[in-house]
Amino acid sequence: MVVPLYHILAFAGLLFTIGVVGVLFRRNAIIVFMSVEIMLNAVNLAFVAFSRYHGNVNGQVFVFFIMTLAAAEVAVGLAIIVSLFRNLRTSDISEIRLMKH
Amino acid sequence: MTTILFYLFSALLLGAALFVVLNRNPIYSVVGLVFAFMNLAAMYFLLEAYFIGVLQVLVYAGAIMVLFLFVVMLLNVQPDRPHPGLIHPDRWWFGIMALIFVSLFLLLIGQGVRALLTSPAEDAAGMGSVADVGEALFTSFLLPFEIASLLLTVALIGTVFLAKKKV
To answer: Which CATH class is domain B2-81+120-163?
Structure first.
């Protein structure tokens, strides 16, 4: 493997940054959720890169667990978004403020 | 050749991620995210993490994105209105939060790099196969593995409960 580890890690950081920007600036709940997925995948990429360059398989096992967690999180989160949409008729997170008062 | 492919997939992934975050229409965002995950799977293959690459295609690009697509179609979400805009004017301070997040992430990565420099890695080729990951999964990570299955069951029940017609 000739790609330096620094390049992969810098790229993972860049991907994570894109995810953070999406979470903080977008108003559509589904797109915020997808940005969270991008952040999780940036971390996964860092894990796999370290696993490869350390010669240790544990990083890939961690990625496996993160994927399991992401599947569970997406199922529950999307159910919450659906039930919010059913009650409030919107998926705009700036209009969802049931807990404000 | 591997290097060129790696940078090519990186560039495509970066473009797809930007497309996801910047697009106004959620359907296009979902399709862009599927493309991004496919590129990430290719990068995993180039890093010789074959099992993780297959999982990325099956679980992420397959199952999770189908779920997203279903929900987008179910909700019939309209594209964001052009005004008041993609970015709230009173959210400039979110940029500072983003900066803090990113610097924390880079700090963690720096720790990892330092650990790698102090104990240089032996080049262990071909340890990302299903057999290798499976062996670690069923020996030293057996308890977390069973807890993960419990977590999936809990998520399944919770999803059914949340998405029922009458809560």
So the answer is: mainly alpha
